[in-house]
């Protein structure tokens, strides 16, 4: 079923991603956060962990390290609060709101450590036409690629049997077949 799926990360990347989390990785993640972001269910802002790192750093490191080693046995780490921010002055439907999730600081640190570990290997797993999450790539690049594709299709003689297709991926994840996604990621 997954014959068309490209191979995953190599041994080097797998080793880097699964290596034990160091205290320095956790400290860097904390220090890179904006100090006064809205707190999640834990009630803490990153400022607290920055200010009192010498006191709380070891405990946060153990929490993050254990999450990497054993999974999320402490379910409270995963708790988030959803807040709806109005997009317009007088909202009348849910589409008029932008949902944001307020996460616990420990969860944000776990995410930042993962991102820092994945960043060197992104080019190995993200194709050349993916624009999101890749430094130096953006919507402008894809507009140019689309123009080149249409130019190619319109060229005399080259349009025979050619097809240009624009796909709107707005809310694409609302339409994902979750059983397929889960089996692919398992």
UniProtKB/TrEMBL annotation:
Positions of the Reverse transcriptase domain: 85-184
Record protein name field: Transposon TX1 uncharacterized
UniProt source species: Cajanus cajan (Pigeon pea)
């Amino acid at each position: 079923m997954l014959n068309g799926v490209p191979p995953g990360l190599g041994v080097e990347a797998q080793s880097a991603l699964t290596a034990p989390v160091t205290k320095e990785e956790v400290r860097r993640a904390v220090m890179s956060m904006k100090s006064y972001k809205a707190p999640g269910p834990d009630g803490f802002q990153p400022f607290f962990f920055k200010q009192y790192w010498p006191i709380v750093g070891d405990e946060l490191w153990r929490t993050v390290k254990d999450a990497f080693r054993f999974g999320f046995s402490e379910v409270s780490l995963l708790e988030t609060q959803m807040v709806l921010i109005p997009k317009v002055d007088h909202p009348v439907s849910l589409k008029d709101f932008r949902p944001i999730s307020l996460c616990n600081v420990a969860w944000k640190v776990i995410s930042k450590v993962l991102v820092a570990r994945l960043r060197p290997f992104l080019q190995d797993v993200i194709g050349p036409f993916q624009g999101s999450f890749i430094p130096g790539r953006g919507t402008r690049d894809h507009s140019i690629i689309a123009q080149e594709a249409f130019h190619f299709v319109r060229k005399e003689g080259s349009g025979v049997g050619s097809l240009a297709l624009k796909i709107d991926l707005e809310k694409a994840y609302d339409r994902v077949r979750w059983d397929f996604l889960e089996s692919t990621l398992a």
